[in-house]
Amino acid sequence: MKQLLVISGKGGTGKTTLVSAFSSLADEKVISDCDVDAADLHLVLDPEVESREEFYGDKEAIKDDEKCTDCGLCREYCRFDAIDENYEIDPYRCEGCGVCAHVCPVDAIRMEDTLSGYSYESETQYGKLVHGELRAGEETSGKLVTEIKEKAVNVAEREGEELIIIDGSPGTGCPVIASLADVDLALIITEPTLSGLNDLKRVIQLSENFEIEPAVVINKYDLNEEMVENIESYARDNDIPVMGKIPYDPNVTRAMVQGKSIVEYVDGGAAAKIVEVWGKVREKFDAIPA
Predict the structure, then answer these.
(1) pLDDT confidence band for 290 (50 / 70 / 90)
(2) What is the pLDDT of residues 123-165, one digit of tens each?
(3) How many helices (H) and strands (E) does the chain have?
(4) Are 67 and 107 in contact (CB under 8 A)?
(5) CATH class of the structural domain 65-107
(6) C-alpha span between 89 and 93 (Å, rounded)
(7) Which CATH superfamily is domain 2-56+117-287 in?
(8) Would you list the domain boundaries of the chain?
(9) Statement: the pTM of the whole predicted model exceeds 0.85
């Protein structure tokens, strides 16, 4: 079983467009949406949810008023100002660190698991989709990504599929690091702007730190061909393959509005280039030892 991760330095560069297209082109695969902070792959794939599990990724402090002696140690040691002058705990400020429970001399504070989000296993027209979402304001995206990836592997093993296609989170933070675990190829999509090149360098460095081979796709390349040359030059100097250049195409948005992948919606333009990119990705995977 092999894993393809599609990531980017920032949101809105076309990750979901690419993953939804790959999902319609690939055989024997499981699809996984690990962008749990802003999950949107389901908007294109229109999944039918088969199972939902609650995800408890964080803790919060709960005070027992009958035990509390108002000694003030909890407020003194709380670094997040989550305990007021009446020694009441503000759940919105509490970071679940557990210091207050640790210093309380009468065990008046306990740490309880909190519902942080959900993970799903769904059926789509392209196959199984494992995905999740965080509740508003939750900060445990890395833990949820890890759970979703583990479930995707289990589903692939159960269904006998050979490939997992992962829609990762943007940036270089905790959910991206969690997404990179056990990946065979990190396909990084970028745009021809100065910030796009800088973001690309950061994501490439992150993937290489985890000894994961990166490859690059340039989206909307025809908007700034001078920057495209800079990106290609950087990739060439660092022996990083550029798998393709995709033109700006308003049909991408039209396809999303229709709830379809771009390759399902039209044949030419961006769709044709994405098909070429997928062919190169498959060749790359065929060359990776099992």
Answers:
(1) low
(2) 999 999 999 988 877 777 889 999 999 999 999 999 999 999 9
(3) 11, 9
(4) yes
(5) alpha beta
(6) 8
(7) P-loop containing nucleotide triphosphate hydrolases (3.40.50.300)
(8) 2-56+117-287, 65-107
(9) yes
